Amino acid sequence: MTGFPPAGRLGGAPGWYRGDCHTHTVHSDGELTPAELAARARAAGLDFLAVTEHNLAAPHRDWAGLGGDGLLILLGQEVTTRTGHWLALGLRPGQLVDWRHRVGEPGFRRALREVRAAGGLCVAAHPHAPYPGGDLMFPLEEFDAVEVWNGQWSSALPWNADNGAALAEWGRRLAAGVRAGRWQPALGNSDTHLDGQLGTPQTVVRAEELSAPAILAALRAGRSWIAESAAVRLELTAEAGGRRAGVGERLDTGGGSVVLRLRLSGVPEPQVRVHTERGKAQWEPGWSTSAAETSFVRVEVRHGDGRVAALTNPILLG
Predict the structure, then answer these.
(1) Where's the Polymerase/histidinol phosphatase N-terminal domain (predicted)?
(2) Which among 24, 104, 126, 134 could disulfide-bond with 150, CB atoms 3.0 to 4.6 Å apart, if both were Cys?
């Protein structure tokens, strides 16, 4: 069990579920209690929430009764070391991941194996955070996913240079990863410490149901996109020869032309760019490519001042 037993209205049908996988409460360095954080999650329209205290297991007595009624609570930890932070998502109740390792030490890979043995996910957290220990020194390729958008400073600056560096680094590595058959999905989380930060940004996943195994599987597969808030709605699909695929899926193009379809709302005067292994291009209706030209397509949506409003994981072309 990687989440506290639900009180009701979880499970259900396949669909898109919104969540925040990086949060803190008074048990580490946040200002909200678990009950307050759960209430904020419901008010923000989130479907799932990951508890990721610094080097602490989620206390059962405080969280056990807060899930259910449409809110899934995932157990996790922010593994906080002197050479970077990473998220362990999908832990067992009471499980604590050893953080007493540095880059180059065997304890790092041992900790990764422990998380995966529990069915969990290892995520590189804020790889370019501007404080001692926040700049990730562990090899990015060791992780299952990368947090490219961290909203800890969102109340003052929703998009900053640190997020820009993380997104650019992830984007540069994506083509090689797709070609090698092992690419890392991108996540966006609030890293909530203060009231008003939760869900800014949030990760929207296509899962088989609202359950811990299903959400973790969707995150691992990259069937997800990132939104600055619940106001942003997006659907990206690629079509070829009567076949269709969405974000995180592979499209068998049959060697033919691929047409991209985008539905977007909640972003006034959006600037949309399509990213491929050949670079980026201005979005326009009927935008097309082929598997001979690129192994993937993804989309970034920005405001007029350059701030990111949404971004997707890739659709793979074969």
Answers:
(1) 19-83
(2) 126
CA angle centred on 316, ends 315 and 318, rounded to 5° = 145
pLDDT digits (tens, 9 = 90+) for 175-191: 999 999 999 999 999 99
Residues 6+ apart with CB under 8 A from 127: 84, 135, 136, 140, 146, 147, 165, 166, 169
Given a cut of 50, whether residue 7 has pLDDT beyond it is no
What mean pLDDT do residues 213-241 have?
97
Q: Model pTM?
A: 0.94
CA angle 301, 224, 1 (to 5 degrees): 150
Would you tell me which CATH number, out of the four given (2.170.130, 1.20.120, 2.60.40, 3.30.300), belongs to the domain 233-317? 2.60.40
b/e sequence 52-68, b meaning 16+ C-beta within 10 Å = bbebbbbeeebbeebbe
